[in-house]
Structures are given as structure tokens and as C-alpha cells.
Design brief:
single chain, 396 residues, mainly alpha, six-stranded parallel sheet, 6 strands, 56% helix, 5% strand
Length: 396
């Protein structure tokens, strides 16, 4: 599961990989004509919207790619850095950068690309950018208040707008297609071209079809967590879904004998876990199922993972979600912790041998009622699942 750093690509190798990707990116920019200031500023004068088309297309394709990787469990989106939004510094910085773009003819990335092929104006542009960075760094105490003003955190637009992720992605892709049509009309008018910007030819029909397919693919990749949570609202499905279960007697037996193959995964709230937990249990949240590090605990070979909550239906819902995510060796505690406590801990409500049958079963239950409270009192539960990886700071 991504990100691939640092498990697959080490922190040191990461810089080399970034350098290679950067060179490839620069080569593509140059081949696309982005080392020419005339083409870049054409966006502002209306005679060339290549910049808008390229970056809008790149953004939409990247968005769909991230959604697809997340949907198939190949990317932990919680480890992907999202630039924080400081509203006023973003507005003022955007205006300054836009002005610099119009006047200088480059943005920071394309200026390096143009300088690499020997363009003097790009080199001067980079010199100006370095001077600007120096002024900002030296004057930071003066600018700090404005720089950090109106912090919105790291919002994701679909959450801010209160709409499903896939619907936002679809609408954004449609907006991109509409923008391409509008800018083509503007381009033709500014350049004095009489032919229609969009014609019913194979070329344009093909492009439109690809664009619509990309837009519709957003519905193929709904946010996985939301889709699974919606799925387990079906009571009939929860009752009929084939899941392995574990009786409270078996769990008690394996706890008493400290079975090393047993993993108790406790999905109750943290405060309930702090008040009471079974020996060796690990506190999990539903979010942990979708995260890179926590899910490694559920994929250990030879382990039997027992999903526990206060009641069995809740545990079944979580186990169904985990199964759909590809986790195996899962068992649901029959009757939940309520049944476990009633049989072995809350003996005042349920007398020891009231429902016992065979004599050996009765002896075991009585033994468990003596031993388990002491084990729980001395419990050494693992607590919340540990996460050491954090989002790597960065971004454009």
C-alpha cells in the first residue's frame, strides 16, 4: 500500500527518484512548449490556452488516479500531504504570482525548464524569484502575521462543500470539459479564426468520449469507507453474510492459556477500552482498517483475529467491512463482550452453572470465572494500534 516511501523507496533513494521524476517532468514541459514565455502568457491574453488545458487535464487525471488507488486499497490517503490553507496569504500570494507570471512570462517550474535550455529571460526570472525568497525569509517576522492569518487547516473541497467525493470529481471533470469548449471559442475569436472550435469530426467526438469516460469513472471509485458503511446498513445482509464466529467459551479458554495465535481486536470507543479490555487486546477504530500501518496487524500470518464490540451485530458489521477490504482469519465473538461478561464476570446476574451441561464444561466455567477476573485486572492490553508514519511535509 502506498505511499511507497519509506518501505519500498528509502528516504535517501527518495531524493534520487524525485530528481529523475523532475528531469522527466521538465523534459515533457519543454516538449509541450512550456519553455516559451509567449505560449505561457497566452492564457492571460486569450490567444493560447494550452496551459489551462494541460494543467486541468493533469489535475483531473491525477484526481481520478488517487481515487482509484484509494478505492482499491493501494494508497493510504491519510499519509498523503495536503497543503494547509491560510486564506489571506493564499490570496495575496496568488495575486503576486499571477502578476509575476504575466510580467515575467514564466511560473517557477517552467522558468527552470526554460533556463535549462539556455533562455536568458528565464535565468533572469529565476534570479528575481530567488531575490523574492530572500526578501520574504529576511522579512518573515514582519510578514508572519499575514502569512498565518485565517488558517483553514487542510480542507478537502468535497468535504467543505458537503458532497460525496465521487460526485465532486464528476462535476469537476465536467467543468474541465466545459472550460475546454469555452476557451476554444475565445481562442478562435482572439486569433481571428472563423471555423467552429468544436466540430462533429472523429477527432473531437473521440476526445469528448474520452473526457466523458474519465468523468464517469468517478462513480466507479466511490470513497471506499463511505461505500462500505452504507453497505452494512442492510440488516438482512449483516445477518446472512458468511462469517466465522468464536464462542465466548473458546475465547475464555484461549485467553486463560495465553494462546499466542489469538489477536483480540477491540473496536469499542477508546474510553470504553480504557475502562475494560481483555488481556492482550488491541484497540482499533474503523479508520484503522483503511490505514497503511494499522492494517499490518491484521495481516500477520498464523493469527486468528477476533473482532469484539459490546454486541455481536456491531462486530459483524465491522467484520464484513474488514472482509470486503481483503482481511482474512477473522472471527466474530458470538454475543459480543456483553455475553462474555455475563457468563464469566457478572456471575451475580448469571449463576455459574445455571446453563451448564456436561460436568467438565461446568468445571471449566467455574475455573474461568475464578481466573479471568484476575487476568483482566493484570491485563496487558496493547492499547491503540501504534502508528509511527506521518505525512511527509511537502507539496507545490
Amino acid at each position: 500500500m502506498g505511499p511507497l516511501v519509506p518501505e519500498i523507496i528509502g528516504n535517501d533513494l527518495n531524493f534520487i527518484v524525485a530528481l529523475v521524476i523532475g528531469i522527466a517532468f521538465g523534459a515533457i514541459l519543454e516538449q509541450a512548449g512550456f519553455s516559451t514565455s509567449r505560449k505561457l502568457v497566452g492564457l492571460f491574453y486569450g490567444y493560447d490556452f494550452t496551459v489551462l488545458r494541460v494543467f486541468f487535464t493533469a489535475g483531473v487525471v491525477a484526481m481520478m488516479g488517487v481515487m482509484g488507488l484509494e478505492h482499491f486499497g493501494l494508497l493510504d490517503i491519510n499519509l498523503v500531504y495536503v497543503n494547509p490553507t491560510f486564506l489571506w496569504s493564499a490570496i495575496i500570494g496568488g495575486l503576486i504570482m499571477g502578476l509575476g507570471f504575466v510580467v515575467g512570462g514564466f511560473c517557477p517550474g517552467t522558468s527552470v525548464c526554460a533556463a535549462a535550455i539556455g533562455k536568458v529571460d528565464a535565468m533572469i526570472f529565476i534570479g528575481g524569484a530567488v531575490l523574492g525568497v530572500f526578501v520574504f525569509a529576511e522579512g518573515y517576522p514582519v510578514f508572519e502575521g499575514l502569512y498565518k492569518a485565517t488558517n483553514w487547516g487542510s480542507p478537502r473541497m468535497f468535504e467543505t462543500l458537503g458532497m460525496p467525493q465521487h460526485l465532486f470529481a464528476f462535476l469537476l471533470a465536467i467543468v474541465a470539459l466545459g472550460a475546454f469548449v469555452v476557451v476554444s471559442i475565445v481562442e478562435n475569436r482572439v486569433n481571428g479564426i472563423d471555423t467552429k472550435p468544436i466540430r462533429m469530426t472523429r477527432y473531437y467526438v473521440g476526445l469528448a468520449s474520452i473526457g466523458l469516460l474519465v468523468a464517469l469513472s468517478a462513480f466507479i471509485f466511490p470513497e471506499r469507507k463511505a461505500a462500505l458503511q452504507e453497505m452494512v446498513k442492510d440488516e438482512e445482509l449483516v445477518r446472512s453474510y458468511p462469517l466465522d464466529t468464536m464462542a465466548v467459551d473458546e475465547l475464555a479458554y484461549r485467553l486463560i492459556h495465553e494462546d499466542a495465535a489469538l489477536q483480540v481486536i477491540d473496536f469499542r470507543p477508546a474510553d470504553a477500552f480504557a475502562r475494560f479490555s481483555l488481556p492482550g487486546s488491541t484497540s482499533f477504530t474503523i479508520d484503522n482498517l483503511f490505514e497503511k500501518e494499522p492494517n499490518q496487524a491484521l495481516t500477520l500470518r498464523g493469527k486468528t483475529n477476533v473482532v469484539v464490540t459490546e454486541d455481536e451485530p456491531t462486530a459483524r458489521r465491522i467484520a464484513i467491512m474488514a472482509t470486503e477490504l481483503g482481511y482474512t482469519n477473522l472471527r466474530v465473538l458470538r454475543g459480543g463482550l456483553d455475553a462474555f461478561r455475563s457468563k464469566f464476570l457478572d456471575v451475580a446476574v448469571h449463576p455459574a452453572s445455571a446453563s451448564s451441561g456436561a460436568e467438565h464444561t461446568t468445571r471449566f466455567e467455574e475455573h474461568a470465572r475464578r481466573v479471568l477476573p484476575e487476568l483482566i485486572r493484570k491485563r496487558t492490553s496493547s492499547g491503540p494500534v501504534k502508528k509511527t508514519q506521518k505525512r511527509v511535509l511537502g507539496g507545490c
